[in-house]
Specification:
Blueprint (H helix, E strand, L loop, with lengths): L3 H7 L3 E10 L7 E10 L5 H13 L4 E9 L18
Antiparallel strand pairs: 1-2, 1-3
């Protein structure tokens, strides 16, 4: 069975990390950091946008800053079937 993450990578998804700074609900002058990581597609980032919409709708801490890093780990062109099998011993 193939892992879901591997299938996503073959479909063009890459590992996306977001550093989210938000204000503490009771102390708006203080910032707290939250790291979010998921497989998503650049440049639109629909999974991250959905998470941020959920955050603004459901959580009390207002967003301050979101920094995004994205890395495409595999692409379909890099995935090739093996032509042979070699056995040692």
């Amino acid at each position: 069975m193939v892992a879901i993450e591997f299938e996503k990578q073959l479909r063009g998804y890459g590992l996306t990390t977001a550093e989210i700074l938000y204000r503490m609900p009771d102390h708006l002058h203080l910032l707290q950091a939250y790291l979010w990581q998921e497989y998503d597609t650049a440049p639109d980032f629909p999974v991250l946008r959905g998470f941020l919409e959920f955050w603004e709708r459901e959580l009390e801490g207002p967003l301050h800053t979101v920094k995004v890093a994205h890395r495409k780990l595999i692409s379909p062109a890099q995935f090739r079937p093996v032509d042979g099998l070699f056995r040692l011993h």
